[in-house]
Write a structure and sequence with these properties.
Gyrase A, domain 2; about 600 residues; alpha/beta; Rossmann fold; 4-stranded parallel beta sheet; 13 strands
């Protein structure tokens, strides 16, 4: 189904062609002055130089064609305005016909791609043996939303958590475990039997061990050297350390899955850096053989600087002087692995924006070394930090980094207190409802901000039922659900799915209809830009338009059956679009609030 703007632009283009001009000049946009018109075309301005005419003359000629279309015109009015703008208002008949087609179309008219793209989406990125904290929130929430948006728009998306599970942190944990439990069979070089099925530690133990080991390694050179040695032995395949490593992964991943489930975030692949360890040697040898990798100050590097660079881009280090691999190495090997297994059209990475240089180096090295096809897109979406009211990275009241589990628990409990004040919600549904609304507050609070920008985490603001918040969106949806439920219970009520929207009876109703009609083009742009904040803005605007219409209109009290049924159809479309929209953002709506 054509988007509203495409349909209007097509009609305007025909008018340009009929007046003797290039039809491409008919491209129309939403007006930035809604008090003057609904849509605007600047084609006459663009065509003035090409046709050696004053833009107002061209605009007048095109307006004459459009105004001569009679009753079949999709425009209620078309006006040429100096110095050469075309201002439009669409016909109520056309608008209602467009909405009814949208109401009955799959995904409300969103066009399917001719050929779906296969996309590998790299998000999450936690390190094992460490608890998820508030710093992991944005990657998970933004990544989950982008995955859903892309799938909703018809793309084939594979989500990969890409855990940090193979570096020095593993050597540190192993070293400290050996200090504390030296008699474990994992550390006995003569051990020839099997290893225990149960881990000799809990996730709580790991959460204490890693920071302890990390701090000690910075003060104790011998301890650090031992950790480096254990890291090397692990990566060389020491059977005991590999068995212990698997236990660390098992315990850590179980805890991660529990935390991500609480966020309603899922991954198709639970791969880590270790997944590509065996790929690295062959990849490095090929880079050297092909002449792309060379030694520099003892390290193996690939030059990635380009003449057009405004600032210096250092070489991409493949191996350190001691032969150790780095994040760049495992990221490049991961690209090789993904290309071999999935042949993606695009690989998207969602990480802290401070890693921008890293990904610039990795992407350039991957292309220079031929690890991806020339047409394969590589894209990094960098996000800002979650800050406290003081503008600094969000901390606990005690000054430490807040665990993600704690953050979710606190917002759940605060929302439950609010929900308990509503006597209409049964006691056995209060916790479920509060968790649902709290998730909307948390995710919408994050996603409504442009990903690249830092934002302040304000729990009171995020949980408000007024303003640009998740709870306000859900409250609007619950209001619509209530009206539709009451209508369906009325004697003689028709099946809501059989109803049609009518022509707008007021300016506020038309405003709501126009916003609904723009859904397809909004979703297209949200996907093209991978911008959940644009979807948030659309949903918020739609809720505002609905509430303005609702407060003006006595929907269920209307005596004219045709009017009431048309309004019910409009509400059904509004709710359906909001439901799809919030699904793409990663949360859902309760029945009551």
């Amino acid at each position: 189904m054509q988007t509203l703007l495409d349909r209007i632009s097509e009609e305007t283009g025909k008018a340009f062609a009929a007046a003797g001009y290039d039809a491409a000049l008919g491209r129309t946009t939403v007006s930035n002055r809604p008090d003057l018109c609904e849509f605007q075309c600047n084609g006459a301005m663009a065509g003035a130089k090409q046709y050696h005419k004053a833009p107002f003359v061209i605009a007048e000629e095109v307006a004459a064609v459009l105004n001569g279309s009679g009753e079949k015109s999709i425009f209620a009015s078309c006006e040429a305005v100096k110095p050469g703008f075309l201002n439009f208002r669409v016909s109520p008949v056309f608008l209602s016909e467009f909405l009814n087609a949208e109401l009955r179309a799959d995904k409300y008219g969103l066009e399917k791609p001719a050929k779906p793209e296969r996309i590998v989406l790299d998000y999450g990125g936690p390190n094992v043996a460490k608890p998820l904290h508030v710093g992991h929130l944005r990657s998970a929430v933004i990544g989950e939303s982008i995955k859903r948006i892309a799938r909703y728009c018809g793309q084939d998306v594979i989500g990969d958590i890409h855990m940090g599970d193979w570096g020095l942190q593993m050597g540190l944990v192993i070293t400290e475990l050996k200090k504390r439990q030296p008699d474990l069979p994992y550390f006995d070089p003569k051990h020839s039997g099997g290893y225990p099925e149960e881990a000799p530690f809990s996730v709580s133990d790991l959460e204490e061990i890693y920071p302890f080991a990390s701090a000690r390694s910075k003060e104790d050179a011998d301890y650090y050297a031992e950790a480096m040695e254990n890291t090397h032995r692990l990566q060389e395949g020491d059977p005991g350390l590999l068995a212990l490593w698997k236990q660390i992964i098992k315990v850590s991943v179980a805890d991660m899955k529990r935390n991500y489930k609480n966020l309603d975030v899922t991954f198709d692949l639970w791969n880590g850096e270790a997944t590509v360890n065996d790929i690295i040697p062959g990849m490095v040898e090929k880079m050297k053989a092909d002449g792309y990798a060379h030694e520099s100050s003892g390290a193996l590097v690939v030059d990635v600087a380009e003449e057009s660079d405004a600032k210096e881009i250092p070489p991409c280090i493949i191996l350190k002087s001691d032969g150790a691999a780095l994040y760049t190495t495992t990221d490049l090997a991961t690209i090789v692995d993904r290309v071999q297994k999935y042949d993606p059209d695009e690989i998207i990475y969602i990480t802290d924006k401070r890693q921008e240089l890293h990904f610039t180096q990795v992407f350039r090295a991957a292309r220079r070394c031929g690890l991806v096809k020339p047409e394969t897109k590589l894209r990094h979406i960098g996000f800002g930090t979650v800050n406290g009211p003081d503008g600094r990275p969000f901390k606990t009241r005690q000054g430490g980094v807040m665990r993600l589990e704690t953050l979710i628990s606190e917002i759940d409990e605060s929302m439950l207190e609010k929900i308990r004040t509503n006597p209409d919600i049964p006691a056995d549904r209060q916790k479920e409802t509060a968790d649902c609304v709290a998730m909307a507050a948390l995710k919408y609070g994050d996603l409504s901000n442009q990903a690249s920008k830092d934002y302040a985490f304000d729990m009171d603001k995020f949980m408000s039922f007024e303003g640009d918040t998740g709870p306000y969106i859900l409250y609007t949806m619950v209001r619509i659900k209530s009206i539709l439920t009451k209508y369906a219970a009325e004697p003689g009520a028709r099946n809501i799915s059989s109803l049609f929207a009518g022509q707008a009876q007021s300016a506020l109703e038309k405003s709501l209809m126009l916003t609904l009609a723009r859904y397809g083009e909004v979703m297209q742009s949200v996907y093209e830009e991978l911008a959940p904040h644009r979807l948030c803005a659309y949903i918020y605007g739609l809720c505002n338009d609905f509430n303005s219409f609702y407060h003006e209109t006595r929907i269920l009290a209307e005596q004219d059956t045709a009017k009431k049924e048309a309004w019910i159809a409009l509400l059904s479309l509004t709710l359906g679009i909001l439901n799809d929209g919030i699904w793409c953002l990663g949360f859902s709506c309760p029945e009551r609030m």
